[in-house]
Structures
1.
Amino acid sequence: MQSVVEANNKFTLDLYQVLQKDDKFTDKNLFYSPSSISIALAMTSMGARGDTAKQLSEALHWEAMTSDQLHDQQRHFLDALQDSNAEGNELLAANRLFVQKSLTIEQEFLEGTKRFYNAETALTDYQKDPEGARKEVNDWVERKTKENIKNLIPEGVFNSSTKLTLVNAIYFKGIWQNEFNRRATRSKDFFVSKKEKVKVKMMKLKTKFKHIANGAELGCQLLELPYQGEDLSMLILLPQDKYGLASVEASLTHDKLQKAIALTQEQPPGRVKVYLPRFKMTQEFQLKKPLAKMGVTDMFNAKADFTGISPGLFVSHVIHKAFVEVNEKGTEAAAATAVVMSRSKSPSGGSAKIPVFCADHPFLFLLCHKKSGGILFMGRMMKPEPLD
């Protein structure tokens, strides 16, 4: 699954660069699951042909793989995620097709999504009961994400032209290998910018972690916080400069990030005093414009070629919603992606002193599947919720 993991990680950074430049996210928190998005789009691509398929392949870095290789590697990736469940941890991924009951779909597409993505098919009636269909999709997503992703499909998205919705849901709950002591959590300043600071609940822990005090190429400290079982971890990129996140973001590339992850993994654990804020966020995205900026345009209009699913279909919406909560015990994260299809009417130095990793200013964080190297979630913490 090496090629599909590398493609996913490249897509992670490409999408991050597009989203963080969006006016909606200027100086704001950001959190999404590139894995959920790429799995949903990979299922969609199974029915894409011609330029529609080519644009998806280029934007998601699938060019080095044949279609069969892509879907086979996605299947192995999904299997590897499921195999990472350990005592105290949960990692679940689920896929489903919600099909208009009157729509005739190519049997090869149905069999392929079932074989490679374990996607069950549910018949629904967008034409006569779009609100009932919306409730059906949203209820399924809510169940699969342990009630963390609610109302994925907003009102007004489904209508009588809607024919098919492809949905991926991913859920993660991880217990820290070294839990923070709740009694050590204190109120502390978080420096949002030179002009703003907020009081947050800052967790504290001193123990051995893989830590790089100065990732010179990125200008930040790197810290890995493993979850029980060690298959999964959080990697935090904390700028050396309190107000230097924009500089880190500007210099961040796929190669630099992969090198940072590899260097951190190779690092022997050493004692570190860690300060990390408790935080929680939920974010939702309409990904039509970001994907168009990445070169995926034809699937959203009359040029769309999804004859591998059913003639005349185009994608009207790509909706993504993600949730994360980090506390003393561990991390809970969930995400869901819906592709809605309609029919057209037309290295660091040693020191005796214990290093301090104090995340009291904006930082980036990743939730990684260590066995595959895949990035499951990526986020930016600009401003935790202030204390009441």
2.
Amino acid sequence: MTRLTRAEAKARTRELLLDAAARVFAQKGLAGASVDEIAEAAGYSIGAVYSNFGGKEQLFVELLKERANDRVTQATAIAADAEPAQAQRAFSRLLVEVADKDVDFAPLQAEFWLYAVRNPELMEAYAERMREPRDLLTQLVARSVPDPERAGELSAIVIALFQGLVRMRRVDPDSVPDELFGHALRWLFTGALADEEPQ
């Protein structure tokens, strides 16, 4: 059996804590979940949570950022080699996978948004953590739309579309057909590019 290095062991601990936190937060909400429950679900002591994340709120914000970064990384991989029509289908499959299989994603997004709105001191921490995945997405969008300001605006719309359609599909799958997200992206970018053309 291969022994993990200290850095590998720390990364593994962090990963297990994030996975456990996702389950506990999705079931009990941020206010209802305790550090004890998260540590126990991960198989660690409370000290492991505090030494890796500093506290429950920081753990939650880091969890959302990691999930968002994972989605942007997947989107980047899709866009790297695919033709536009293939990419649109792949983006639609990604949304369907998140909505249908990652059952914690939508509740976690909604839960922290509500918690941050009710606790304004956390709002800036939430916004700061979410800037990194949004900036990554903006870099991806900038491949199609060279205007940096327009790319930033479009990335905000793409995020809102993704989150909104995931929530809608979780509640009423028939209202969000499998290909809808890809179609919406095509409509969005076709309109944005047409808007940039000289009249």
3.
Amino acid sequence: MKVPHITSGIISICLGGLFYYLTLDFPKLNTADTGAAFLPRIYCGLLILFGIILLIQGIRDHSKNEESSQTVRYALIAMVIVLAYILVIPYIGFYVSTALTIFSLLFFSKVRKAVTLVSVPLGAVLFVFLVFEKLLKVSIPMGSLFL
């Protein structure tokens, strides 16, 4: 039995259920079209399904839990990087913070090739710019420092 898998599965199921419950207040359309809650409910269902799969895997797995302190440390550092990313988006904007976060995660993952460290963040930012901002006309946060 793997306690982290069981715990993650239960948390995923609970979050999926909570988010599904929150979609019940979304406005409904009078036509046969899908409403605002359609896609979030699909995501909630998938989150619940994957949580159930993770829970079952955790219960059925009888191997020893061999989580090293190094693995836990890496996971915590990656979570801190992502949390910092979320916190700095309003100030330095989406594009700069995304490029810095991807660079940081690659560097933290021991990627040392300069071409990769530069091209992957720039490619991701360029992709988001072209697809979402230019093609789909989605407004991307620019940050208060650049306004």
